[in-house]
Write a structure and sequence with these properties.
With 246 residues, this protein is an alpha/beta fold. Helices cover 42% and strands 16% of the residues. Helix 1 links the parallel strand 1 and strand 2. Helix 1 runs parallel beside helix 11. Bound molecules: 2-phosphoglycolic acid.
Length: 246
């Protein structure tokens, strides 16, 4: 399985940022061993589409609504995201869960809608610091996985394990803790989807991935890529992370 290197630009970027994928490709050259995905704010997907198609960089959104259309002021449907030119959509990021009150059930509905339009959902899960300190990390993540995947097809699905306390903090779990959690997630997926399908689901690690820790994280068993926030805004550092993929 190829590693997926995914940048989550969050609410950063203006029109001039459409140059960034080209800069990234120039630094990297060809990368047949990995897949590269950029998830910019929605308004940049369409202007970045043409250039990205030509240089084998995929695009994703950071959210979508579960209905196709309707009176939902300020929302964008999965089909609209797809129409912009996205192939992926990040769903249930901890910032959306925390700041916008998104539940596992809502994430599952969004993921189902995304898959119906042909988008690949990247479903984010992860425990808080308090939950990890109490030894509940695996239980919490297991619950998030089963509830966020209700009605979701195992084909065309990516999971991102992002411990909430590691996002944007510079803190990273130990390599053993990352490997243990990814193994646990793989086990949860196996119980839901069976051996064959679960083996095909990429499990990304996210939370303070940087050029200097990317290699050791990306080499872990069952880590099939990274979801990168801060370090994905700079093409030099994103390229350094991408180069660290095995
Ligand atoms: P970070 O963010 O790399 O800045 O920690 C990761 C994320 O929120 O996906």
């Amino acid at each position: 399985m190829k590693h997926l290197i995914a940048a989550n630009w969050k609410m950063h970027g203006n029109l001039s940022w459409r140059e960034k994928p080209g800069q990234l490709r120039d630094i990297l050259g060809d990368t047949p061993n990995i897949e590269i995905l950029i998830c910019p704010p929605l308004h940049l997907i369409m202007p970045m589409r043409g250039v990205c198609e030509g240089i084998d960089i995929m695009l994703g959104a950071q959210n979508c609504h579960y209905e196709c259309a309707g009176a939902y002021t300020g929302e964008v449907s999965a089909q609209m995201v797809k129409d912009c030119g996205a192939d992926y959509v990040i769903l249930g990021h901890s910032e959306r869960r925390e700041m916008f009150g998104e539940s596992d059930e809502l994430v599952a509905k969004k993921a189902e809608a995304a898959q119906k339009t042909g988008l690949i959902p990247i479903i984010c899960v992860g425990e808080s610091k308090d939950e990890r300190d109490k030894g509940q990390a695996e239980e919490i993540v297991g619950k998030q996985i089963s509830a966020s995947l209700k009605g979701v097809d195992g084909a065309g699905l990516v999971i991102a394990y992002e411990p909430v306390w590691a996002i944007g903090t510079g803190l990273v779990p130990s390599l053993i803790d990352i490997a243990t959690m990814h193994d646990h997630i793989r086990g949860c997926l196996r119980r839901i989807y069976g051996d064959e399908i679960s083996q095909g689901i990429k499990i990304l690690y996210g939370g303070s991935v940087k050029p200097d820790n990317a290699k050791e994280i990306l080499e872990l068993l069952d880590v099939n890529g990274a979801l990168i926030g801060g370090a994905g805004l700079e093409m030099q550092s994103l390229a350094a992370i991408a180069k660290a993929a095995p």
